What does this fold into?
Amino acid sequence: MVDQTNVAYNGESIASDIATSIKSQMRTSDKLLSIGVGVPGFVPAKSGVVHGAVNVGWKEYNLKARIERLLDVSVFVNNDANLAALGEYWQGAGQQSETLLLVTLGTGVGGGIIHRGEIINGPNGTGGEIGHVTIEPGGRLCACNRRGCLEEYIGTKGFANTLHDKLSEKRNVTTELEWDDSVESIVKAAKSGDHVALKIIEECTYYLALALANAVTLINPNKVLIGGGISAARDSLFQPLHKHFSRFALLETDPKTLIVPAKLGNEAGIYGAAKLALDRHSVETNHLRGE
Ligand SMILES: [Zn+2]
It folds into this structure.
């Protein structure tokens, strides 16, 4: 069941909406062991307190404690892209990858790193946040108040920014593109040979390739998965991405086998949340047994 998140009053009703939704779907014979929740913010592994989830109105919010109070079971909260990475590791395109990097291209850019089945969160919960690595010093202003972050250059927002730049600077070039065109329209125009559209795709994938090559040098993953709505563009995106990646990569690797599409789509995060809840529940149970 998919419900729209109610972000009114700084997301005040989200915890109770989650609890109500879970209760309404449980049969009397069901036993709730624990709950996994993905959120669009930074979540330090130890506290489970959500930081900077500006899209839902939370600056600092203890979602874990709130849901635990309502349902009386253990709740485990993590960043949504981290959970998507865990889901792909468990049931998707990242199976058998000892080290895995997932990048989700939605409105912004999310990222998650899994190593030996564990999410790399870091003490502040910013582990895997590839959307906020600087790829253009002094570049476009990001929602995080810094300049030149990757998510200003790819993702639907990044494509829109690049489209606007290109339309502002175009001189004596004809293009079928309009100011409010979507990524799909840009891809379609590129396929029919529109030079401005081709340039936009070249530029956006160049920046993604730069960030990915740096990440690959740093963590040396077995696979890099690309998820999110834009990844549906497939060859139009992956071909230039692979080409640019080879320029920046430290070692000669075949980018076609390293950087591949994710498998689970929007359900990756749901699988990841379930896996997190199962793993943490068994850790807690073993701990209580003294194992
Ligand atoms: Zn940023």
User: Anything to note?
Assistant: The mean pLDDT is 92. The pocket of zinc ion is lined by residues 132, 142, 144, 146, 149 (CB under 6 Å). The chain has two domains: 8-82+267-289, 97-262.
